[in-house]
Each structure stands twice: as C-alpha cells, then as structure tokens.
C-alpha cells in the first residue's frame, strides 16, 4: 500500500530528524517562508498553496535563526527525478537566508545535494551542519528565481505587484502625501467604465483607451483599474513620459533586471503568454499624449501588432484633444486605430464622462472622511466638481488648510491654489511664458469686453511670427480652449471663473489698487458682460473697503433697515425676540441678493451672526428670477428665510417699512400660533401669579376683601402648591365626583 507525502513525513522523516537531535521548534512543516525578490522579501504562504495544489516547500530545518536544509517529500510511488532535485535546490536557494543543503525523499530513497553547486553528497550530520554557502550567491539566486518564476504563475504576479508599485511611485498618494495624483482612499470605479472594460476583455480588440479632458480623472481611473485587476490577472503599469524604449523592450528589461538571464523581447512575451495561457496579461500606459518620443504612434502600433490574437491587452489613456493624432496620420488611419475597443460606433475608445449622481455622492463621502471636512457645498461648486474631479481635490485641500466652514466660490484661497495647480500642468521651462499669455488674454478680454477673443488679435499682441504656435500645452492642459467660427479661430478660458480671477487679481490687480484708484475704475467703466463677471467675482473675494466702493448705496439702506429691525425687536419684545426672525437672542445680520450693476437689493433676509462677523452681507446675482432662484449660497451663509422684494428702497420711510413688512406680519403669526403669552413677559406672569394667589386665598380663608390680603402674608407656598395641584386634577380627563372622590375613573382607595 502506497504512502502519502503526509504519511512519509509523520512516520519516517519526523522521527528520523528527532533522532538526529533536532527539536520540533527547529522544523518548519509546510509553513510560510520568505524568498528574496529584487526589491524586498516576499512571503510564500505554503498552507494556501496546499489548497490549490501548487508547489510548496515541505520542510525547512533551522537552527539559531539559520536555515540549514530543506526537504522535498514525494510519495513512495514516485521515482525521484532531476526535476525533483531542481525543485528542492530552487527552494533552498530562494529561502532567506539560503539553505546550504537540499534533500529529496520518497521514503524509500533519499538524495542530498549541496545547494551551491547541486552536487550530490552522502548523508553525514556533521558535514551537513558544517556546509557554508559562501559569499558570491547572486548567480545561483538568479538561476533559482528564474526557475521559480517559471514554475508558478502566482510568483510572477508578486513581481507584477512590485512593478505596479514602482510604476505608480510618482502618482500614488496617501494622507501623508495628499499632493500626489492617485489616492486609493479617494477612488471610486465608475460602473460604466467597469462594464465597458469587462466587455473589452471578452472582445477580440487589443487596445482599451480612456479619453478625456485634463482633470477628468483619467490617471486615477488607470491606477484604480490596474490595482483592482492585478488581483486576478498579471498587470504592468507605465507612465508614458518615463518610457525611453519600446513597450516590449521595457517589459523585457524589467523582467531581466529582476530575474535574469537575459531574454529578448519576443521570447519573453511568448514565455509570459505561455505562463498565463488561461489569464490575460494587462499592460497599462498612462498619458500617451505626454510621451515625448516622436515615434510614439508607431511604437504603439508595433506593440499591438505583436500582441494581436494573444492573451496580452494594452490599456492606454490620452487627452481628448490629442487622441485623434493617434488614430490618424496625414489623413490615413493608423494601425492602432483598427484595434481600439469602441464604446460608441462613432467614437474609438472610452470617453471619460462625469460621475453618475450616486457615484459622485459616494465620492463626496470619501473626500469628507479623508479630509475630515463636513461643511456644506454651494450648488455651483458641486456642479463644477462633478464635471472636473480635479476641482474637487483642490476644494477639499483648501478647506483643510484654510479651515473653511463651507465650500463656495467665495473662497480666495481656492482661486490662488487652483491658479498655482494650473501652472504646474505646464512644463517648468514654459510656465513664465504661460503666465504671460494668460495675463495678456485676460487683459484683452477685459478691454474688449468679449469672450472669446480672435486668435489673430492675441498673436499680434504677443508678437508671434507666422510659424510660431500659441503654447500648445495651454490647450492640452485644458487651461485655454480654441473654437472655430467660419474661417476664424477664437480663444477663451476653459474655466470661466479662472478667467475672472486672472482679470481681477493678475491683469487688472484690483486687490492691490488704492481705494481711490479702484473707485475711479468703477465709476468710469460700463459694467457688462466680461467686465461685470470679473467684478462680481472680485466683489465676493474683496476686503470690506473695496466692497464699500461697489455696494455703498445698498449697504447703507440695508444697515438702516437692520438697525430699525434690531431696535424694535430688542426693545419692544425683549423677552421673546427669539420668536422673530432669525429666531435668536443673539446678534443678527442682514443678507441680501444684490444686483451690483443697478445697485438693487433683489431679495433679503436675516441671519444669526457671531462676534466679529460683518452684519451686512450680499450675495451678487446677475440673473435674479425669484421663481427660478435655486442658489443655496445665501442659506449656506446662514439665511433662514429669503424674502422679496426688498421694501427699504426709500431711506426716508424705512422705519415704517420695517413695522409694516417685518414686525406686523411676524407678530400676527406669533399670536396665531399661541406664542404670545404671559410666560414671555415678566409683568404678565407676575399678574397671573397674583391673581391665582388672590383666588386661592379667597377659597382657603374666605377673604372677600382683597385689601385685607396682606394680613395673611407671607403666603404659605405649600398651600398654594396643593391648591394648584387640586385644581389641575379637577380638570383632568375622566374625573368624576359622586359620593366618593374618583381620579381618572379610579376610586381613591383603589389599589
């Protein structure tokens, strides 16, 4: 009857090893052990490998922290072969540190080899314990690693894990490195992307391309997909700007540097395909539009030609404005174009689109948790961030650093940070030129009061020759956009609020102008279109002195209206002023929706304010429509109720307007809901208390003459309390008084 490997270990090997003087704590039976991969130690979990019938180290014998020898056990029905020897030697060379001796046994026959040169030796305990591996171990380690890698696909996956980490090194962020592009805690896989990618893997197409604008989270999607898919398939990840060779050559270099011996590109790819014949090998290349290699289109096409029909897939990302250059060259479709998975018939590739609402809300929750921010969002901010997750990251970073209470487009720090990040998208050598171009375009837009501006005007202002281009990276990075009208090209800012910010703080520099200079500019200009948009943004970010220049007439009316309202509620209704808007005993402020252009308060309300807050605050609005007004900024700033129209337009009758439009309507509601009672007035409460006392004194003492009440003072509080409780009980539901007193239907002697 044949014996299993387990029988041989338990019945033969374990007793034999103990007879030689080895204790149980020196024997490792099918437990995890470490091998040395190129960049770190990797744990091999042999228990997990047993369950999947994959190769495993059977026994590792150690002493004093030193690996002595490994024993590879076979069934007694199996003859020992050179492959068994190679396997045992391989494990002995890979364990860390290297074990000097390798042993193979099937219970009937046992062979022992020196790990360093695979020479068979006779069993001798003293010699075994005396064997040393020497110092020059790199060559035997590389040979063993190559054998090991070729032996199990699981181990090459571990190498892929390391390669991904290395490939994403400059992208992978965390709480301690929040400035990097991809933070796993902030990643949500788009359902639409996942579904299309799964369909691509089942298709005959070799290339999947993510195509989208700058800031649309292409890189995050690439990183997230690569990390997720690496759990089931081997994955390599590269950033195109860091590739200096062809794709196949780069893959071969990574394998050869790690494992040796040297494989050329074609044999290596064939080896990978053979190892993963039941899986797909996925190669990710992020940002092919940023690849400086002039032959990048040809390199991609050549790689696709080699992997066509094989179990290797290529996944790339590209900016939308550059994608057509990879599909067509001189009007002729490229080899790549025929092998790209198409989501829509009219579009090759996967167009990155805004998140679905449910996905975006989940993403917001992740950001709140990561940045520990739980304030409110202005609706307009949410809308823009959904279109561009890049904005969302900046907003949350600003919220954390500036300790913002809420996220609105009224935060100066956001624009400063966004402008800085925009310039970082430009190559360092071109940033000065980029900033100059942006300022000139902003100046032209302000002076011409138009958006967009003819490209010819911009080129003339910059002094560009016919053959000189307008810094292409400004368009590739989605800072500027170009549109065609007839035979003319026009230029504008991709994000309009960036345009307004550049006009206000970099081109016109209103923030550093003196009050008189700014007032002169304001009084001399006609504020429409681009000019009005820019001054509205500046107003939201300006200090109080500059705001006074822009809103003084309206501010004075609002201040007078608020003063009268505060005076009346505080003096006339001191004890229940919290029943009036904004329902507080604390300080209150005025908040208005302001048409800056016409100096008209379109709507208004009252809000609670803290010490140091500006009591008068305006939210500028250029297209006020009370039926369609949906901006939540006023409510974020503390407004309780938005009222319209503002009744205090005439200064000479503001007091009457406050009484008519604020006090009287609210007082009517207060009375209607029973909020106006003696509990809110000391004198009425005192009068009621005295009335009760008089009535009770008459009942208890027969005093009809109220004037004699003082002869019974001081009042007996206990008697008063008793009579109050009795009076309350008499009016309780279910009370009946017959021959015997009953309370709530129960006799007074009932138990």
Write structural notes for this entry:
This protein has 751 residues and is an alpha/beta fold. The protein folds into 6 domains: 146 residues, tt1808, chain A, CATH 3.90.1570; 199 residues, Rossmann fold (3-Layer(aba) Sandwich); 54 residues; 114 residues, Arc Repressor Mutant, subunit A; 129 residues, no CATH class; 66 residues, no CATH class. The strands form 7 sheets. A 6-stranded mixed beta sheet has the order 1-4-5-6-7-8. α9 packs across α10 and α23 packs across α25. The radius of gyration is 41 Å and the shape is flat. The termini are far apart. The C terminus is likely disordered.
Estimated helix fraction: 40-55%
CA-atom Rg in angstroms: 41 Å
Q: Total helix count?
A: 27
Name the strands of the widest sheet in spatial order: 1-4-5-6-7-8
Determine the N-to-C terminus distance. 87 Å
CATH fold-level topology of the largest domain: Rossmann fold
Q: Could you give the count of β-strands?
A: 24
Number of domains: 6
């Amino acid at each position: 009857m044949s014996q299993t490997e387990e029988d041989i270990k338990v019945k033969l090997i374990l007793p034999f090893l103990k007879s030689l003087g080895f204790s149980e704590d020196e024997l490792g039976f099918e437990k995890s052990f470490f091998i040395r991969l190129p960049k770190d130690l990797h744990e091999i979990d042999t228990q997990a490998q047993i369950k999947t019938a994959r190769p495993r180290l059977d026994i590792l014998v150690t002493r004093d922290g030193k690996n002595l020898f490994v024993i590879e056990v076979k069934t007694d029905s199996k003859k020992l072969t050179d492959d068994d020897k190679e396997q045992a030697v391989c494990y002995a060379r890979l364990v860390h540190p290297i074990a000097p001796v390798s042993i193979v046994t099937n219970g009937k026959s046992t062979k022992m080899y020196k790990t360093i040169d695979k020479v068979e030796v006779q069993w001798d305990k003293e010699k075994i314990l005396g064997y040393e591996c020497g110092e020059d171990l790199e060559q035997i380690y590389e040979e063993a690693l190559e054998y090991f890698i070729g032996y199990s696909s699981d181990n090459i996956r571990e190498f892929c894990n390391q390669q991904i980490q290395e490939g994403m090194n400059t992208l992978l962020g965390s709480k301690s490195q929040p400035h990097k592009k991809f933070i796993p805690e902030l990643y949500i896989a788009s359902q639409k992307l996942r579904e299309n990618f799964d369909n691509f893997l089942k298709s005959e197409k070799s290339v999947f391309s993510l195509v989208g604008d700058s800031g649309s989270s292409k890189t995050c999607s690439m990183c997230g997909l690569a990390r997720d898919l690496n759990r089931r398939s081997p994955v390599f990840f590269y950033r195109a700007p860091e590739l200096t060779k062809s794709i196949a050559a780069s893959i071969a270099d990574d394998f050869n540097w790690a494992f040796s011996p040297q494989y050329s590109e074609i044999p290596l790819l064939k080896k990978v395909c053979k190892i993963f014949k039941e899986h797909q090998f996925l190669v990710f290349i992020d940002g092919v539009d940023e690849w400086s290699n002039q032959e990048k289109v040809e390199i991609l096409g050549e790689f696709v030609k080699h992997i066509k029909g094989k179990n290797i897939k290529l996944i790339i990302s590209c900016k939308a404005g550059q994608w057509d250059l990879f599909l067509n060259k001189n009007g002729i479709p490229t080899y790549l174009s025929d092998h790209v998975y198409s989501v829509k018939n009219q579009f090759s590739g996967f167009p990155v689109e805004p998140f679905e609402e449910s996905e975006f809300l989940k993403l917001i929750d992740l950001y709140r948790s990561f940045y520990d921010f739980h304030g409110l969002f202005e609706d307009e901010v949410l809308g823009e961030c959904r279109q561009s997750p890049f904005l969302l990251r900046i907003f949350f970073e600003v919220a954390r650093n500036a300790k913002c209470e809420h996220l609105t487009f009224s935060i100066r720090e956001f624009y400063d940070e966004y402008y800085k990040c925009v310039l970082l998208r430009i190559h360092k050598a071109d940033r000065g030129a980029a900033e100059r171009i942006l300022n000139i375009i902003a100046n032209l837009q302000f002076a011409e009061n138009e958006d967009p501006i003819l490209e010819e005007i911009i080129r003339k202002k910059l002094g560009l020759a016919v053959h000189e281009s307008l810094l292409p990276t400004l368009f590739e990075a989605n800072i500027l956009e170009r549109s065609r009208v007839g035979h003319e090209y026009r230029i504008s800012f991709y994000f309009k609020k960036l345009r307004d910010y550049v006009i206000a703080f970099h081109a016109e520099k209103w923030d550093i102008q003196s009050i008189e200079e700014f007032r002169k500019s304001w009084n001399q200009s006609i504020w429409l279109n681009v000019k009005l948009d820019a001054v509205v943004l500046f107003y939201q970010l300006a200090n109080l002195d500059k705001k006074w220049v822009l809103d003084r007439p309206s501010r004075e009316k609002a201040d007078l209206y608020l003063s009268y309202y505060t005076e009346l509620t505080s003096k006339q209704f001191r004890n229940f002023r919290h029943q009036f808007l904004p329902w507080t005993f604390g300080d209150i402020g005025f908040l208005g929706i302001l048409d800056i252009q016409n100096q008209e308060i379109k709507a208004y309300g009252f809000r609670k304010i803290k010490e140091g807050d500006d009591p008068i605050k305006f939210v500028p609005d250029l297209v006020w429509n009370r039926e369609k007004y949906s901006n939540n900024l006023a409510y974020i700033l503390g407004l309780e109720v938005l009222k319209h129209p503002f009744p205090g337009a005439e200064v000479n009758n503001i007091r009457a307007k406050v009484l008519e439009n604020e006090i009287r309507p609210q007082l009517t509601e207060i009375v209607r809901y029973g909020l106006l009672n003696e509990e809110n007035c000391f004198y009425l409460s005192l009068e009621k208390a005295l009335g009760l006392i008089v009535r009770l004194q008459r009942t208890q003492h027969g005093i009809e003459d109220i004037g004699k009440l003082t002869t019974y003072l001081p009042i007996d509080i206990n008697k008063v309390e008793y009579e109050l409780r009795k009076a309350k009980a008499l009016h309780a539901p279910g009370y009946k008084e017959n021959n015997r007193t009953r309370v709530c239907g129960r006799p007074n002697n009932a138990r």
